[in-house]
Amino acid sequence: MVRKTGWLSLTAGVFALVLGIVAFAWPSATLKVVGFLFGLNLLIVGVIRILQFVFTPEAPVAGRVLGVIFGVLVGLLGILCLRNLAGSVTLLLVIVALGWLLEGLAEIFTSVGDGGAGGGARIALGLVAVLGAIAVLVWPGLGLATFVFIGATTLCFVGIAGIFAGVASLRARPA
How many domains does the chain have? Predict the structure, then answer.
């Protein structure tokens, strides 16, 4: 099971890193493209989070339930982003930031006390997502360019941390 969740973390990390690089490469992208990319990221991360906890029977039940609930909420926020691509920039910023906040909190809460491989990297991943969310929520009026920069930076760091966590899980010896 550790290998399955390792592959899922690695996949989510690579996807987030690629999206972050794409956002940096196209700073003049329209709101629709940015909204689609970030909404798609939230949807995929939410689905991966759900799958991680559905297919990890050795995890504590409370942690699994919390992980699935956060995964569903993150996925729903991704769907909201995808449904209204031309919506208000502020609304999009808040939705994406809430998705990052939930994802970061899920990663932190499910990693603390777990004792599994890559726990430190998973906690760091959660902290980066939470800090990125807070930055976006505190300064929503700085404009789309700042949002793209903060968002792309957050996605790159979250992606790198996810890759490290996935590799650490894959390198762990089965118990």
Answer: 1
Q: Phi first, then psi: what are they for 92, rounded to 5°? A: -60, -40
| DSSP assignments along the chain, one per residue | -HHHHHHHHHHHHHHHHHHHHHHHH-TT--HHHHHHHHHHHHHHHHHHHHHHHHT-TTS-HHHHHHHHHHHHHHHHHHHHHHH-TTS-HHHHHHHHHHHHHHHHHHHHHHHTTT--TTHHHHHHHHHHHHHHHHHHHH-GGG-HHHHHHHHHHHHHHHHHHHHHHHHHHHHSPP-
CA-CA distance, 133 to 105, in Å (whole number)? 11
Would you say residue 174 lies in a domain? no
pLDDT recorded at residue 130 = 92
| pTM exceeds 0.90, yes or no | no
What residues in the chain have per-residue pLDDT under 50? none
**Residue 62 is assigned to a structural domain of this protein:** yes
Is 175 contained in some domain? no
Crossing angle of helices 61-83/31-54, nearest 10°? 160
Range of the domain at 109: 2-169
Q: Which residue has the tokens 């890193």?
A: 17
